[in-house]
Amino acid sequence: MYKSVKIEKIRKNTLIKFMIYTYQECIEMFGTYYAFSKALAAKKIFKIKEGVYADENKPKEIAIFVKEYHKAIFTMQSAFYYLNISDVVPNKYYVATDKDASKYKKDNIVQYFLNNGLDKIGVTTMNYAGTEIKLFNKERMLIELIRYKNKIPFDYYKEIINYYREHIDEINIPLVVKYLSNFPKKSLIKRTIELEVL
Questions:
Q1: Angle at 142 between CA 84 and CA 60, to 5 degrees
Q2: pLDDT for 40
Q3: Cβ(113)–Cβ(97) under 8 Å?
Q4: 111 in Cβ contact with 188 (< 8 Å)
Q5: Whole-structure pTM value
Q6: What is the mean pLDDT of residues 91-98?
Q7: Rounded Cα gap, residues 84 and 186, in angstroms
Q8: Helix or strand or coil: residue 160?
Q9: Dist. CA 63–CA 130, nearest whole Å
Q10: Which of 4, 7, 155, 193 has the smallest CB count inside 10 Å?
Q11: Could you tell me where the DSSP H helices lie in the chain?
């Protein structure tokens, strides 16, 4: 009964393929707190943590993360891994947000605050482990690699640079140049790309 037009409306507005809900979405689906409570008792829906519920008892961790931090965009080590640029599994979630976003206070999150609309440039989506995630595309991540060159281990940097060299035919260089027009130190970044990748 609860798999109704309401749940389909929520499904269309969410990034999660298998469903994870906020408390408010659950109340909207079931109509009343009483009906929601009955669904919980009948195990038609499961409480995962405070304010987070799901169709299944043990959803994937990344699906929960995306629901909780739906404005976050995966970047750096997370994006390199999800894009198959690196096989190094990140031990934290690396995400970018607008500079005015709230600070994520969990130890397993590394948050980059971006100015001047840089959180909107090169954003794409992909399905990862059954979850639709937002991340920067390969062209944008080449720029991010150069921007944060001095903040990541040298061996890791070289691994990523080698990927871009070996897959240069798959990279839209004119798009990289277009993106660069929005960045500070764009000439330095462009020069580094020319020297190390092209």
A1: 35
A2: 84
A3: yes
A4: no
A5: 0.80
A6: 97
A7: 26
A8: helix
A9: 8
A10: 155
A11: 5-12, 23-30, 33-41, 61-68, 76-82, 138-147, 154-166, 173-180, 186-196
